[in-house]
């Protein structure tokens, strides 16, 4: 199936560049473009894209608030959002994740990385740019997830093991190799972990693991 993409960036050249790269792919289609966060919210609600590629600093409404309106807690039928920004600042990453973004990339990433990010987020997985390190996620974990009694007691020892490997940044294939399991089995474990802990995606799983001391 074709992944329908909405591109939102206040710089016309970047917006056009992204759209050209995306539309050249047989499995991706740009269904709309806009230059501010308010327009992104309106277009997303009208067009129903599979994913929004969202800039941060924009007029009228910034990308963080637009992300919150489209993918934040309590939003019915949330839209997947991949935040792409020039600014590699800790606070932007924290705000984007808290607002509900499923991915975060820098604009200087090569086209292949942008396309990979779109496909990854559209598939229901989550993506953090390589520049967004484990230390950064760990630093903001306490702020992203409120303190409380950890629910990981509901996880089996194997599920805890998989959760720790997710938090260390391993992909499903890498986890499968480490634990000598099939990728399908790993996918099942990941799905169970997210369901049991009431987490949206792998980004929240990483944050949860740091917040509750499962990874240091």
From TrEMBL:
Q: Which UniProt keywords apply?
A: DNA-binding, Phosphoprotein, Transcription, Transcription regulation
- For this entry, list what GO says about its biological process: phosphorelay signal transduction system; regulation of DNA-templated transcription
Q: Give the SUPFAM superfamilies listed for this entry.
A: C-terminal effector domain of the bipartite response regulators, CheY-like
Domain of life, per UniProt, equals Bacteria
Please name the GO terms that the record assigns under molecular function. Answer: DNA binding
Residue ranges occupied by any Response regulatory domain in the UniProt entry? 4-122
Name positions with the PTM 4-aspartylphosphate. Answer: 55
**Which PROSITE patterns does the record cross-reference, listed alphabetically?**
HTH_LUXR_1, HTH_LUXR_2, RESPONSE_REGULATORY
| Ranges where the HTH luxR-type domain occurs | 148-213
What is the recorded name of this protein?
Answer: DNA-binding NarL/FixJ family response regulator
Q: Which organism is it from?
A: Actinomadura namibiensis
């Amino acid at each position: 199936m074709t992944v329908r993409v909405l591109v939102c960036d206040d710089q016309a050249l970047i917006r056009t560049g992204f759209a050209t790269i995306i539309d050249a792919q047989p499995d991706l289609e740009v269904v709309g473009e806009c230059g501010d966060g308010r327009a992104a919210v309106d277009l997303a609600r009208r067009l129903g894209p599979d994913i929004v590629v969202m800039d941060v600093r924009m007029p009228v409404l910034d990308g963080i608030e637009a992300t919150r309106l489209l993918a934040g807690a309590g939003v019915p039928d949330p839209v997947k959002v991949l935040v792409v920004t020039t600014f590699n600042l800790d606070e932007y990453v924290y705000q984007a994740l808290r607002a509900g973004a499923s991915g975060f990339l820098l604009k200087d990433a090569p086209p292949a990385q942008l396309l990979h990010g779109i496909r990854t987020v559209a598939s229901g997985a989550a993506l953090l740019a390589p520049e967004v390190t484990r230390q950064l996620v760990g630093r903001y974990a306490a702020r992203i997830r409120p303190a409380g009694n950890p629910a990981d007691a509901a996880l089996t020892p194997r599920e805890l093991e998989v959760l720790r490997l997710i938090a260390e940044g391993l992909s499903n294939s890498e986890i499968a190799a480490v634990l000598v399991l099939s990728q399908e089995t790993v996918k099942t474990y990941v799905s169970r972990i997210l369901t049991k802990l009431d987490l949206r995606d792998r980004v929240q799983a990483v944050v949860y693991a740091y917040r509750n001391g499962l990874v240091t």
